[in-house]
Amino acid sequence: MSAAITRPLAAIGRPVLAGLASIGRMVLFAAAVISHIFRPPWYPREFLHAVMTIGWYSLPVVGLTALFTGGALALQIYDGSSRFSAEAAVPSIVAIGMARELGPVLGGLMVAARVASSIAAEIGTMKVTEQIDALVTLSTNPIKYLAVPRVLAATLTVPVLVAVGDSIGIMGGWFVGVNRLDFNSAAYLQNTIDFLEVSDVMSGVAKGAVFGFLVALMGCFYGMNSGRGAQGVGKATKLAVVSASVLILGSNYLLTELFFSA
Fold first, then answer.
1. Is residue 21 a part of any domain in this protein?
2. Any domain includes 79
3. pLDDT in tens, 80-137
């Protein structure tokens, strides 16, 4: 009788405990990465390479995503606001929506899809081929050499990508508004400038820094904890992208509460 009762509880408890243990390992890994950022030695070549890989090479996909999102947002807002004869609100809502939410979130998700998978696959392959063990043999800390440059580069470059994406998204809304919805170009831009505040832009940039940190952290964590073989690397890549995406959406809500709940 007791076994019949405890068996279902054990089936529930095992994944819960495994999840809590995984969260604990992530927190300890994040603490180790943060602590190593401020302690030498530093590896500027690895950092600059990560800046190019994460920042510059992600610009096309972030820019295209923002461009089409801004245009679609202008169409949707115009269609909805026309029911209340409030078409003049289209420029301001597009600008605020891109700066506060859509720019940071979509940019973060695009970077997560591209960067978290790449980092996890790269570091996971290094683990499978015992290159990480070779670093330890050469008295090189793998966290400092592999994780710190990538996490620091993502934390610094994703906010820049978000700012550029915001600008491109607003221009996408302007292009659709002027050429498709018959807005006056000067009036559209003036309306955008009048209603968009510095706090709107800075909140999105701050979100970008958090999202970049989470993306690189998940890529490094799952890469270093990858299983053996091609299957283990594939699983680590999948978990890195899924975890980074979920953390971006969850942290976005928390940051929105923090910035705008008042």
1. no
2. yes
3. 888 877 778 888 999 999 999 999 999 999 999 999 999 999 999 998 888 888 888 8
Tell whether 27 is covered by a domain: no
Domain of 75, in residue numbers: 43-260
| Overall domain count for the chain | 1
**Would residue 92 count as lying in a domain?**
yes
Asked if 150 contacts 119 with a C-beta cutoff of 8 angstroms, the reply is: yes
Q: Which two tokens stand for residue 233?
A: 């690397």
